[in-house]
Structure formats: C-alpha cells, structure tokens
Design a protein that fits this description.
The chain is of the alpha/beta class and about 260 residues long. The protein contains eight helices and ten strands.
C-alpha cells in the first residue's frame, strides 16, 4: 500500500516545490529575490510557528517555509525537531513534487571546503544520535540518499558532498569522529530531520547549503558563523533560484 501510494504521487514533472529554511536571516534575501508573498493565514494546522511565502518561479509554484520563532525564546526555531515539524506539514498540506532544504552550514578544509562554497547534498546522515545497540546504531545515523540530480549539479557547478546533521553548533571530539565516519563535507542542524520526513512521504528531497564556517579551521565556530551569515544568505539568494529555475517543469528523473 505504501509503495502504491508513492507511485501514485510521483509527478510527471516538478510543478510544486517546497523550500524549508530554518532562519529568517537565511531566507529573507531569497524571498525578496523570488518576489514571494507571505501567506498571512498559515496553511498549516495547529500552533506550528512556521511561516510560508509563496509565488511562481518559471513553470512552478514555490513555497519558502521558515521554521518561525521559538515561542518564549525570541530566536529562530533551529534544529531537527522544528525542521521535521515544518517538513511534515509542508508535505501533508502543500504536497510538493520536490522538497528542498536551503541554509547555511559548516564546511571542512580537509574536504576542500571554503567559506562561500555552495553544496548540493548527495546524502544525509546524523552525527549526534549515538545508540550503541545493534540495529539502533544504524538507525541513529539514519543515512538517506538525496534525490539524484547529476544534471542539476553540472548546470550549477555546485560542490557535492554528504550533509551531516546534529543539534549543536559546536563540535566536540565525539562529533568529529562521527563526522569523519559519515564522510561529511557539510555540518548543519536540520537536513537529516527533513530527510526522515521526506522518506515517509516518498517525496524527492535535495539540499543546498552555503558554507559560513570551517569546522576544522582555527576560528571559533560561533564567531565565524555570525561574521559570514549575511554573505552566505546572499549566496543562497543566487544559488537557490538557479536550482528552482532549472527544476521547474522537469521530470525528477531528468534532474
């Protein structure tokens, strides 16, 4: 039944895209560039704080969904739990043909990464779900492939790499070991949670990540992240429209 449901939902072409972005500062330049309009009445059920901006890009309808404010904390809702909640509502309500996670991330000089680089994910893994029990250990990593997009990668020239997700900005030794085991090129805080939901719905999923800081560099991560957040958001402002314009109207198999 699940297989049949997924086959029925496979689109002939990409007509609706949902883009999930954790932070308002990451999303604002992109929303402005695409000319999207805020949906004043949320299309999502319940008290979810996610905010949706919608409009047309080429032949596709695009919804940019930010996770919204964290109630009682005065900051953006970041991390895997808000991302998964937003992704679930986006898949259930907006029914996208393609799900995209766009955002900033850490890179690795050991993998050839530099501040300002843009990556297209090849796969998604977790690096902070350590469950040392047979079977659960594999579940903890939760590896999921990104939708194959060789033509999109060639068109954009973006780098390719594994995106590894954890719920902390810092990187203690235990996480560094897990990141190495994951063969990670990108370290961030949302994508694997979204991948879990995309797999549930059978929705093709890709991620576009702009590098703000170098995990194995010599600068404190929080300082480098804040210093480069604005520049990385502008990089996404250029990168994500390239992706959307390319995928609009194309079959998933042609990406």
């Amino acid at each position: 039944l699940i297989k049949q449901r997924r086959l029925k939902r496979k689109p002939m072409s990409v007509k609706t895209v949902a883009v999930i972005v954790a932070m308002e500062a990451e999303a604002a330049p992109l929303i402005e560039r695409l000319g999207l309009k805020k949906q004043e009445k949320s299309p999502f059920a319940g008290p979810l704080p996610a905010v949706v901006f919608s409009g047309a890009v080429g032949d596709a309808t695009v919804h940019v969904c930010t996770n919204g404010p964290a109630q009682g904390f005065g900051v953006d809702s970041v991390g895997t739990v808000p991302a998964a909640l937003t992704a679930y509502q986006a898949c259930e309500t907006l029914k996208p043909d393609l799900l995209v996670n766009a955002g900033t991330a850490g890179g690795f000089k050991a993998k050839g990464g530099a501040v300002g680089d843009v990556y297209l994910a090849t796969a998604f893994k977790n690096h902070d779900r350590r469950i040392q029990i047979p079977g659960f250990d594999v579940y903890g990593v939760g590896a999921a492939d990104a939708a194959a997009c060789p033509n999109l990668r060639a068109h954009t020239g973006f780098k390719a790499g594994v995106v590894s997700t954890g719920n902390s900005l810092d990187c203690p030794d235990v996480d560094r070991d897990a990141l190495a085991a994951n063969d990670a090129s990108v370290k961030e805080m949302e994508a694997a949670g979204i991948a879990h939901v995309a797999t549930m719905f059978g929705t093709p999923f890709i991620a576009v990540k702009a590098i703000t800081d170098i995990v194995d560099g010599d600068k404190p991560t929080h300082d480098e992240f804040l210093q480069n957040l604005g520049a990385a958001a502008k990089a996404l402002q250029e990168a994500v429209p390239k992706v959307l314009e390319y995928v609009a109207g194309k079959k998933i198999a042609d990406l």
